[in-house]
Design a protein that fits this description.
By secondary structure, the chain is of the alpha+beta class. It contains 15 helices and 16 strands. It starts with a strand and ends with a helix.
Length: 484
């Protein structure tokens, strides 16, 4: 709520499906290839070329629909969306309009301590357009080059109901959407490469009003944080316009991240401007109800369900379960480690506290955790060495870091570097006696009541043993000796 106004927000997300080939031809979808390498008569829109539907793309789209709690329509229809743009070679885009693949779903978000369902109005399939590459500046001459590698790449467009009321809700919706699509392995969510693109429809109205205000569309924003900032700016801009006696104009605006503001792009098109009509080259898309059920059974456990199960089955906190279900690879890594070690909480602590830090420091992607140099079996073996007292918890941190860097086993590292924990109380006692003898003033302070100096003695013993002394034995012996 801002200045007694309420924001009304809906999101449209274009998500590229992780197929190897395009939606209606066999050209590769690989990102980063030389311009116009992955093209053919079909995706270039040459006369006489006919589209042939990619079944894998349909399967992925249905998985996404089921993951977002949608009803999959047994029949949907391809339509031509007509508009002129230099990188749209056919002069139209094959999409779906009034008969989409799926409808009436939802995503549950959690903002400010509250759960809320954001309705998913529809999911439809479509092909992507090409890409325009601009060189130079408008006032000094500019060249535009066209790359059609992306033309025909399969997309799903996911459209929400106007249920979102703040930029924070929009951010959480996008984060959960990305997480679900990644768990299903239907979209990698890479906004930098354009495989997830978001448009936001934003309007404001007086608090308590039921009638919608005039909306603007914020187009092709390339990060969740920018989506949040663009919505906040646009809400304030529209309120300023209304409060100043003006009228909000329906238009498409772009987010200028350099200036932190939205700028006009064009007047907003309506559906009739695209002159949708059924594509005569493509029959109805018909999916069998049994095939939908088979697809549903093949899907992995989704993040929300897995999070709840981790809390119940492994007695994890809600925070820990949330962290460990951030990606499918991370959830599976934890679950395998917990199963092998039989100590889920200890496994969770090592994964969240150290392993994730190594990944963050090396800028590695958590989706690649299945290829980690430290496998669940290796981590389990290291945990067992700590539990047996072979190494201390402190030494284990050094060992795990070396395991991550080299891919070597914990036992091998411990033996090569002489890191086995000293648990022989006789050997530790000799070192304790020496430390006490060398620090008479600190002994006097301890015995005078400054028991905080115990930490100093422990540090000296650990330093003398290279951190290998059993910490419990060190503490017990020091207290006994210092007590006099």
């Amino acid at each position: 709520m801002t200045r007694n106004y309420e924001a009304v927000i809906g999101l449209e997300c274009h998500c590229q499906l992780l197929t190897n080939s395009k939606l209606f031809c066999s050209c590769s979808t690989k990102f980063g290839e030389a311009p116009n390498i992955n093209t053919c008569p079909v995706c270039l829109g040459l006369p006489g070329a006919l589209p042939v539907l990619n079944r894998v793309a349909v399967t992925m789209a249905v998985k996404a629909a089921l993951g977002l709690n949608c009803k999959v329509n047994l029949e949907s229809q391809w339509a031509r969306k007509n508009y002129f743009y230099p990188d749209l070679p056919k002069g139209y885009q094959i999409s779906q309009y009034d008969r989409p693949l799926a409808q009436h779903g939802f995503i549950e978000i959690f903002v400010d301590g509250n759960h809320k369902k954001i309705g998913v109005q529809r999911i439809h399939m479509e092909e992507d357009a090409g890409k325009s590459l601009h060189e130079g500046f408008p006032d000094s001459g500019r060249n535009t080059y066209l790359d059609f590698n992306r033309s025909g790449v399969p997309l799903i467009e996911i459209v929400t109901d106007p249920d979102i009321r703040s930029s924070a809700e929009a951010y959480d919706y996008l984060a959960r959407l990305k997480q679900i699509l990644e768990f299903l392995e239907v979209c990698d969510g890479n906004m930098e490469e354009g495989s997830l693109r978001c448009d936001a429809n934003v309007s404001v109205r007086k608090a308590g009003d039921s009638k919608f205000g005039t909306r603007t569309e914020l187009k092709n924003i390339n990060s969740f944080r920018f989506v949040q900032k663009a919505i906040d700016y646009e809400v304030e801009r529209q309120i300023d316009v209304i409060e100043g006696g003006g009228r909000v104009v329906q238009e498409t605006r772009l987010w200028n991240s350099a200036e932190d503001r939205t700028v006009p792009m064009r007047s907003k098109e309506e559906a009739h401007d695209y002159r949708y009509f059924p594509d005569p080259d493509l029959p109805l898309l018909v999916v069998d109800s049994e095939w939908i059920r088979t697809t549903d059974r093949s899907m992995p456990e989704l993040p929300e369900s897995r999070r709840r199960r981790f809390i119940k089955e492994y007695a994890l906190s809600e925070y820990d379960a949330g962290v460990l279900t951030a990606t499918r690879a991370l959830a599976e890594f934890f679950e395998e480690t917990a199963g092998l070690s039989g100590q889920p909480k200890i496994a969770a602590n090592w994964i969240m506290g150290d392993l994730l830090r190594f990944y963050k420091d090396s800028n590695a992607d958590l989706k690649d955790l299945s290829e980690s140099p430290v496998s669940p079996k290796m981590l389990t073996e290291m945990i067992a060495l700590v539990e047996k007292g072979t190494i201390s918890g402190k030494i284990a941190k050094t060992v795990l870091e070396e395991m991550y860097k080299t891919g070597r086993q914990a036992q091998q590292i411990i033996e090569e570097q002489g890191l086995i924990q000293i648990s022989d109380t006789g050997e530790i006692e000799k070192i304790v006696d020496k430390v006490i003898e060398e620090n008479p003033k600190s002994v006097e302070q301890y015995r005078a009541g400054k028991t905080g100096t115990l930490g100093f003695f422990v540090g000296q013993v650990m330093k003398a043993t290279g951190g290998r002394a059993n910490p419990q034995a060190v503490n017990d012996l020091l207290r006994k000796k210092l007590a006099g």
